[in-house]
Amino acid sequence: MKLTDTFVKRKQGNGKAQKHSDGGGLFLYITPQGSKSWRLGYRFMGKQKLLVIGPYPAISLKEARERREAAKKLLVDNIDPSTAKQEAKAVAASASKNSFQTIALEWLEKYSVNWTAAYKRHILRRMEKYVFPAIGKRPVKSVTAPELLEALRRAEDKGAGFMAHQALNECGRIFRYAIVTGRAERDIAADLRGALTPRVYKHFSAIKEPKAIGKLLLALDDYKGTFTVRCALRLSPLVFVRPGELALAQWSEIDFEKNEWRIPAERMKMRQMHIIPLAHQAVEILREVHKLSGQGQYVFPARGNAEKDTPMNRISLVRALRTAGYSKEEMTQHGFRAMASTMLNELGYNRDWIERQLAHGDRNGVRAAYNYAEYLPERRRMMQEWADYLTDLKHKTIQA
Which of 360, 367, 395, 396 is catalytic? Predict the structure, then answer.
């Protein structure tokens, strides 16, 4: 007699192994302790064999019967159901090992060795929020460009267009890693160039008039906040790096003998090492702050953490500018870059020197890996003359 759902549900263990047949070789197996599973007895190539279908109630009576019929069809084609199940397991294991998410996490661990914890965390969050839910479990080889685009457009629809573009760039790096490790054949992220809504680039507010620059420099000198923030503010116009690059500056990157600051590629937006020649005014500021934080890792540590390897939050620089009396419509921390770019061009310096000093990306990826020292003698002179020019503006402002 065939089994019923009620019988299967109510049947309990009795201290002995039990077998309750449903016909066609299918039976419910109950352990002495009461655990239940479905099993199928069958003959293949003249031998009696047993296939464990799976546990109850995860697999219902109806599904167990469906799997029995599927196994019978395999037998008709001279395929051993047990062998087919083992092969399916192997394929599933391989798919899991080569899933997009597995490879992405492997790539992240491998290449994040020299990244900041914050940068690594931002990438992981983007993947977990926008990419893994859609394609994370899929074998990387089977992911298609339309599937990835659909996931990224969902991010766009939620107002996270910038994150979508960032995630697309990171997916490209992951696919290329999968290619070189033999688990993918092509970078499908490359097919999506131009598929996302173009980014609207924001122009950061910046002071670009000489007299106003002189007043700004005096305001930075008079800043009454913490010593490290004051030093970072005063250094900003002399190096005009991005806010995050300044806040995370490390003493290991500063060379007082050569008067250089070398930011490693992993901390740069364009992923290429950047050299900042330090004018003597910049060196003086760094030597001042070295007395406080020189024994630690970061040049500008968080307040009260000079020896605890905790960097300043770049938001501290933004707040300091506001405290110094400048609104976001007047001046931003990023605006020091625009200020330097505009004024250096107006002062007649070579545009290529300026662009290299701003660490703007080179479209030629191979060339970009080697051009960090390009125009270095010229840039060294330009940076000292720029610092002298700023000093002169301050003096003129004081005398006015």
Answer: 360
